[in-house]
Amino acid sequence: MAADDDLGRDCTSPFSDADWAAINKLKRAYDSNGMRGLNNEFDELIEDDPVRAFRVMSVFFPRRTREALEEVIANMDVKEMLELLDPPSTKH
Q1: Is 76 inside any structural domain?
Q2: Where are the alpha helices (DSSP H) in 1-92?
Q3: How far is C-alpha 64 from the geometric centre of its chain's CA atoms?
Q4: What's the domain range around 28?
Q5: Within 13 Å, how many C-alpha atoms sit on residue 92's CB side?
Q6: Cα atoms found within 13 Å of the Cα of residue 2, Cβ hemisphere only
Q7: What is the pLDDT of residues 14-26, one digit of tens each?
Q8: Which residues contact 65 (CB under 8 A, 6 or more apart)?
Q9: In a domain, 35, yes or no
Q10: Is 42 in contact with 57 (CB distance < 8 Å)?
Q11: What is the distance in angstroms between the CA of the first residue and the CA of the last residue of the chain?
Q12: For residues 10 and 64, is the Cβ–Cβ distance under 8 A?
C-alpha cells in the first residue's frame, strides 16, 4: 500500500460497528496473506455488501477511492446526480 493509502490515515468517524468489523477482518487478511488475502476478502465483501465495501475501501485506499468517486461524479449529468441525491419514490 502506498504511504497515503495506509489504514487509519483518513477520518474514521463515519464508520459503524459493522464497518469496523469488516475493516478489522480485511486488515487481518492483509497481515496474514498480503494483497492476495486482502483481495479475496474484498471480493467477498463486495458480493455481500457493495455499499459497505466502498465505504471500507476508503479506509485502505483513501486517495484512490476519492479519485474514483470524483471521476464517476464528473461523468454524471445533473439529472443523474439529482436522482442519486433524491431517488424517485417506488410507492404506487
Answers
A1: yes
A2: 17-48, 50-60, 62-74, 78-85
A3: 10
A4: 15-85
A5: 0
A6: 6
A7: 788 999 999 999 9
A8: 54, 57, 58
A9: yes
A10: yes
A11: 48
A12: no
